[in-house]
Specification:
By secondary structure, this protein is of the alpha/beta class. It folds into two domains: 1-121, serine acetyltransferase, domain 1, CATH 1.10.3130; 128-251, UDP N-Acetylglucosamine Acyltransferase, domain 1. The protein is 37% helix and 15% strand. It contains eight helices and 15 strands. The strands form three sheets. It has a six-stranded mixed β-sheet. A five-stranded parallel β-sheet has the order 1-4-7-10-13. α2 (21-33) packs across α3, α4 runs antiparallel to α6 (86-102) and α6 packs antiparallel against α7. It is globular and about 50 Å long. This is Serine acetyltransferase.
């Protein structure tokens, strides 16, 4: 940041004046989310209460920021997702909102969902369960329903929907298991399971469970081959297997 002295105040306030990494994260999120009646002081009080209720939230902060640097070729420094990337900020906001939801502070959790949606262009219900090492690339357009579950070490691109199939209540959203890669624009609908180690190709509509370590593509999605590696969420390889495009058809 030495090449941009005009940003010195941002770095000082967001990082150098903070007592530790968790404090820096809470302060940075509050700076980005504060607006009108939702003041920084109110947000910081709520965030600190959430972190005190579940100190393991900080493990998610750390694992997620490492995942960004490991998996995003456009990112070379930890400071980049911390200060600028809305995908990382959206997930950390959700972690805090989820804790508030579990602690019975439902209206504040929903307020955070709404404000995060306005700021980061994602809509994640505060009841949804997220593991650690989650990488959300670009972020814009992500929708995650109330009963969705994302396990550890998952990568998602923009415009992904983890949604329901109608007005049914109860468990109605997808479960994305460890190490899966979900391509841009994929729509995964219903209380179905994806993975572990599976790939969902960009633009696919998934209505049935996805077997471990397979790649599905198409509308509706079907198996077109293996996952290409043991860790598709980390390799981020989104090419279909040879002949994959010829092995499915779009149903209009």
């Amino acid at each position: 940041m030495t090449t941009e002295p005009a940003l010195g105040g941002l770095v000082l306030t967001s990082i150098l004046d903070r007592v530790d990494f968790a404090d820096a994260v809470l302060h940075r999120l509050a700076m980005r989310l504060a607006r009108d009646a939702l003041s920084m002081d109110l947000l910081l009080d709520a965030f600190r209460a959430a972190l005190a209720s579940d100190p393991e939230i900080e493990d998610g902060f750390r694992a997620d920021i490492v995942a960004v640097v490991d998996r995003d070729p456009a990112c070379e420094r930890l400071i980049e997702p911390f200060l600028f990337f809305k995908g990382w900020s959206a997930i950390q906001t959700h972690r805090l909102a989820h804790r508030l939801w579990l602690d019975g502070r439902l209206d504040l959790a929903l307020t955070l969902q709404s404000r995060s949606s306005e700021t980061f262009q994602t809509d994640i219900h505060p009841a949804a369960v997220f593991g650690t090492g989650i990488f959300l690339d670009h972020a814009t357009g992500l929708v995650v329903g109330e009963t969705a579950v994302l396990e550890d070490e998952i990568s998602l691109l923009q415009d992904v929907t983890l949604g329901g199939t109608g007005k049914a209540t109860g468990d109605r959203h997808p479960k994305i298991l460890h190490g899966s890669l979900i391509g841009a624009g994929a729509k995964i609908l219903g209380a179905i399971t994806v993975g572990p180690g599976a790939r969902v190709a960009a633009g696919s509509v998934v209505l049935k469970p996805v077997a471990p370590h397979t790649t599905v593509a198409g509308i509706p999605a079907r198996v077109v081959g293996g996952a290409g590696s043991d860790d598709p969420s980390k390799t981020m390889d989104q090419n279909l297997p040879d002949g994959g495009y010829a092995s499915f058809t779009y149903m209009i």
